[in-house]
Amino acid sequence: MIEIRGVRAVLTDIEGTTTSLAFVHEQLFPYARKNLAGYVRQHESELGDIASQIEAATGRGGLGTHEIVAILLQWMAEDRKLTPLKTLQGMIWRSGYDAGRLQGHVYDDAVRALREWHANGIGIFIYSSGSVEAQRLLFSHSSHGDLTPLLSGYFDTTTGAKLDSRSYDSIARSIGLGAQSIVFLSDHPGESHAAAAAGMRSVLVAREEAARDAGPGRDPEPGSNSERGRTYPAVRSFDDLRLSA
C-alpha cells in the first residue's frame, strides 16, 4: 500500500490506467476504423476545421474526401497522436455510444477510488491522448453508469504532448494548484517522468493485464518505477493507493 498526503488533485491517464487496453484497442479503435470513411462522407460539410488541420499537418492543400480518409486511416495505423484524428475519432465514438453499440470500460478499483477521492474533496482530472470529447463519452457511458459527476476537468493533446513536462506545467496552472499537490497516475514510465519533472508526484499504475498487453519494458515491480535515473512508486491497482488532502 502506498500512501500520499497533501493531495489536492489527481490527474490520471485513461488507457491502461483507468481503462483496459483491450477495450481501447479491440473495441474503440476498430469501431472508429470501420466507420471512419462513411462518417467523413456523411458529415463532410461539418468537418471543415478538421480538414484544415489535416492540410496544415501534412502541408498539402485542397485535399479531397478520399485523400482525407486515406490520411486518417494511415494515421490510425501508425497510432499517431494528432489532434484532428483524435477529434474525429471522438465524434465517431459518440455515434456508437449514442446508438448503444459501445459502453465505456472502467476498472472496478478505479471507480471505487474515484468515488472515494471525490467524496474526500480531492479534484479528479483526466489527461489522455484521446480527445476531451472521447474522454467524456467513455466516462459518461461507462459500465458503471455516468461517472462524469466525479470528474473536475479534462485535458488532451491540445494541451501538449504527454511526454513533455511543459504539458504538466500548463495543466497545473489551468487547475490553479501547485504541481506538488497533484498526483499523476499513468501506466507509461515516460509520462511519469515528464509529470515528475514538472513537480507532480507520479505513481505508475502497473496493472498485470496492461503489462501483458503492452509487452516488455512496461512492467515494473510494484513499489518502484525507474525512468531516466529517477524512481517513482508503482501500484498494481488503485486499491493499492491511499491519497489524503
Summarize the structure.
The chain has 245 residues and is of the alpha/beta class. The protein has helices at 21-42, 48-58, 65-77, 83-98, 108-119, 132-140, 165-175, 189-197, 208-214, and strands at residues 2-4, 9-12, 123-127, 153-155, 182-186, 201-205, 225-227, 230-232, 234-235, 241-243. The chain has a six-stranded parallel beta sheet, with helices on both faces. It has a two-stranded parallel sheet with strand order 1-10.
Write the layout of secondary structure elements.
Elements: E1 2-4, E2 9-12, H1 21-42, H2 48-58, H3 65-77, H4 83-98, H5 108-119, E3 123-127, H6 132-140, E4 153-155, H7 165-175, E5 182-186, H8 189-197, E6 201-205, H9 208-214, E7 225-227, E8 230-232, E9 234-235, E10 241-243
Helix pairs in contact: 1-3, 1-4, 2-4, 4-6, 7-8
Describe the structure.
The protein is of the alpha/beta class and about 240 residues long. The chain folds into two domains: about 1-20 and about 105-245, 3-Layer(aba) Sandwich (Rossmann fold), CATH 3.40.50.1000; about 25-100, Transcription Termination Factor Rho, Rna-binding Domain, Chain A, Domain 1 (Orthogonal Bundle). The chain contains nine helices and ten strands. It has helices at about 20-40, 50-60, 65-75, 85-100, 110-120, 130-140, 165-175, 190-195, 210-215, and strands at about 1-5, 10, 125, 155, 180-185, 200-205, 225, 230, 235, 240-245. Strands 4-3-2-5-6-9 form a six-stranded parallel beta sheet, with helices on both faces. A two-stranded parallel ribbon has the order 1-10. The longest helix has 22 residues, at about 20-40. It is globular, with a radius of gyration of 18 Å.
